[in-house]
Amino acid sequence: MSGSVRRTTVCIAGGGPAGLMLGLLLARSGIEVTVLEKHEDFFRDFRGDTVHPSTLNLIDALGLRARFEAIDHVPLQRLDVVVNGIRIHAIDFSTLPAPNRLVTLMPQWDLLELLAAEASTLPAFRLEMGAEVADVVRRDGRVTGVRLTDGAVVEADLVVACDGRASTVREAAGLVPRARGVPTDVAWFRMPRPAAPMPDTLGWIGAEGLVVTIPRPGYLQCGLLIPKGSFDAVRAGGIEAFRQRIARAVPRCADVVGDIASLDDVKLLSVQIDRLPRWWTPGLLCIGDAAHAMSPVFGVGINYAVQDAVAAARLLAPALRRTEPGPVGAGVVDAGAVDVACAAVQRRRDRPTGAMQAVQRAVHARIASGALSDLIANPPTRRQRLFLRAVLPRVKPLVARLVGYGFRPERLDP
């Protein structure tokens, strides 16, 4: 397609949760949309797994629940953490409204395949894999499309950047996110499940720091939180020191740490939190990670991206249907109305995103200070026992609501 020019109403750069959900919803409204995904498939090991109740409600509303349930996944109604050897039932989603009183751990590529398959049944939807955006196209100061690395141009009435925290489209448009400092990174690796049955546990907190053990089908996807910039020091310590550190942090997995073959199997996941001061410019809107990078804390990245997409579809669809006379009499999309809708998307989603990022930064600050390991002693002090018996049960429903739905969850239009 080198040098070719094709046209669509909405061009979405990036086939992640935000891009595919937005494409699906706009196509359901009869709006022509093209999603450009630079990779040939959806398989990325660093992508989030956690599908929260807010997103499960949307899956239900889209009529996709039966197909969702047919995909291998791990449902969790309760999220446990172990602090200094003391197991705490920290979050219990059974207090949320029916029917979705749980989170589901599903590899993100499976969720993306589901959304892409459903969207592809709609005549207004087009997905192009292996289509990498290199730049935006402008006319009279307005973004009017994108140019691909092969030279092809996709013209559109609106371009939506959904191409992640290192967004090419965002950079090409001159939009610069404001970074919020995060003092931690993650050493990312996987282990087999131990031979002895182990309760699903998302966090192990102790003298070795914080280790997350995400139960994926057949194995544990794990992360060791480390001070930012210290990954080279971790590698310099060697594989055996790393294995022993994980064994001390997660004693239930001591018999499987040997399966971490080498430090080549341990990858750096650089944690960042940032947000655009302005999510749009004429002809272009950023949502999901392109607008705001989220920390892995609470695993809300997928869900905030999806919430952005739902809000954007609801606000953009009426504007994209509005037309004004074109140069040859045919109706064209009212560009002014589209820009007003883009601004409305930011007004709708900026504050709830900022609120969750503030919570995430507070958690990272406690991790960096080492204060998390001081939460519960072993054995617990009298004051800590009182907290576990009297305070935690009252707090858990609020935490479940915050984690499960976030701030300002979105719903599909009836």
From TrEMBL:
<dbReference type="InterPro" id="IPR050631">
    <property type="entry name" value="PheA/TfdB_FAD_monoxygenase"/>
</dbReference>
<dbReference type="GO" id="GO:0071949">
    <property type="term" value="F:FAD binding"/>
</dbReference>
<dbReference type="InterPro" id="IPR036188">
    <property type="entry name" value="FAD/NAD-bd_sf"/>
</dbReference>
<keyword id="KW-0503">Monooxygenase</keyword>
<dbReference type="InterPro" id="IPR002938">
    <property type="entry name" value="FAD-bd"/>
</dbReference>
<dbReference type="GO" id="GO:0004497">
    <property type="term" value="F:monooxygenase activity"/>
</dbReference>
<dbReference type="Pfam" id="PF01494">
    <property type="entry name" value="FAD_binding_3"/>
</dbReference>
<protein>
    <submittedName>
        <fullName>Monooxygenase</fullName>
    </submittedName>
</protein>
<keyword id="KW-0560">Oxidoreductase</keyword>
<feature type="domain" description="FAD-binding">
    <location>
        <begin position="7"/>
        <end position="321"/>
    </location>
</feature>
